[in-house]
Specification:
The structure is a single chain. By secondary structure, this protein is an alpha/beta fold. The protein contains eight helices and twelve strands. The strands form two sheets. A seven-stranded mixed beta sheet has the order 5-4-3-6-7-12-11, with helices on both faces.
Length: 237
């Protein structure tokens, strides 16, 4: 099984931000606002849902929710779909062994630019430390990778130790489970929108995470909310 994430879609969002990249310090932390001319990016689902992608947040320093996630981790942690690496860096700043993994070369470059370790790899390929990680993380919608949440959670379960946990960001209650296709749409005011290629994607709500986890051989150890965002911590039975 492969994740089938389109680099043409997500590399644009993660790394090709023109002048803004020059306005960062040596750890890729923004020291100036993103220029207003930068385009917006949306993740468009084939069921009609359209989500504005929080690019500024991804490229910025760890926000309170991310710091809270990092604080829950007590041992070696693998950040799956790490993007520009703000969570991987937050983990490392707490003295944890942390590894960011992303299929995007731009994401890995930016994560490494924050002074932390990152590997360019499809998460369904062999990864270092399989079965020994204290924690694995699927944040910022990464539960959608590959469009098969059961298969993805089963794969993540194989990465963590017998007493390890998997923290996933999920949708608010009432969302349920959706599987289908999505694509990245980019555009600026007054300019034509540019559509990237389609890829398989999924959404999992807090109301659907327990049966989804059970089908993957995991259980829900905790559900929690950080501001408007919802999370679940999964463990082996």
């Amino acid at each position: 099984m492969t994740s089938t994430i389109s680099l043409d879609g997500f590399d644009v969002v993660l790394g090709r931000l023109g002048r803004w990249a020059a306005d960062q310090d040596g750890c890729a932390t923004p020291v100036a606002p993103m220029p207003p001319a930068q385009p917006d990016h949306w993740l468009v689902h084939t069921d009609g849902r359209r989500d504005l992608l929080p690019v500024r947040r991804w490229h910025g320093p760890p926000e309170p929710a991310i710091e809270s996630i990092a604080a829950r981790c007590t041992g070696p942690t693998i950040d799956l779909g790490c993007g520009p690496g703000r969570l991987t860096r937050a983990l490392a700043q707490r003295g944890l062994v942390a590894l960011g993994v992303d299929i995007s070369a731009e994401a890995v470059r930016l994560t490494q630019g924050r002074g932390v370790v990152a590997l360019r790899r499809d998460i369904f390929e062999p990864l270092p430390g399989e079965g020994r990680w204290a924690h694995a993380l699927l944040i910022d919608g990464n539960i959608g990778i590959g469009g098969d949440p059961v298969g993805l959670l089963r794969r993540c379960g194989a990465l963590i130790a017998a007493d390890g946990t998997l923290v996933v960001e999920v949708e608010p209650p009432g969302t349920g489970l959706w599987r289908g296709q999505a694509y990245v749409l980019s555009g600026s005011s007054g300019e034509p929108e540019v559509r990237g290629p389609a890829f398989r994607w999924a959404r999992v709500g807090t109301d659907a995470v327990a049966p989804t986890a059970a089908a993957a051989g995991l259980r829900v150890a905790d559900r929690f909310r950080l501001g408007p965002r919802w999370f679940a911590e999964l463990a082996h039975p």
